[in-house]
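Extended Data, panel c. Modelled sequence:
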Amino acid sequence: MTGPGLTLAGIAIVLVVLWANLRPWWKGDRNPAKLKSFGAGALLGALSTMCGGGLLGYLAGCAAGAANTGGGKAVAGTTGQQASATVTTGSLGDLTPAGAVVVFLITCGTLFAFRSAGKEERKRMVGGVFCGVCLCLTAGVASALNWLPDVVNGVGGQLTAAVRGSGIL
């Protein structure tokens, strides 16, 4: 994914979205199933940052730009100060061709879930995608999730091996 790095103001707006999604869960019964929509969106957002192009890569760049623009206006409007300093950028890594197939399948599954979800769940999914993209562009979160590309690419390799072994390919 190519695109802008995040500013402090961009991170601030991402943290507001994260808080808005996690606070009701924390104040409620803390049932992990209630994080499913947000988590599915966050996973897709994280995987989008591994896409060097295509629609997911483009949208990941747009999310970062939107966070910077919206955060810049919100912080400046609230405090009168610009928080335009960039934070250290991180990267999850690259996809193999087989890993790209796995990301495509996850994207399709997430879109099917989105289409069948109610209005509130859709909002949580969009918030999850936004947070997943933006947080994975930071060095800290990208470093914490450095295992994710290996898992996705490994699953893709196993899928390829399984299909080849059955004589389908």
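The two ends are 30 Å apart (CA to CA). This feature is highlighted in the accompanying rendering.
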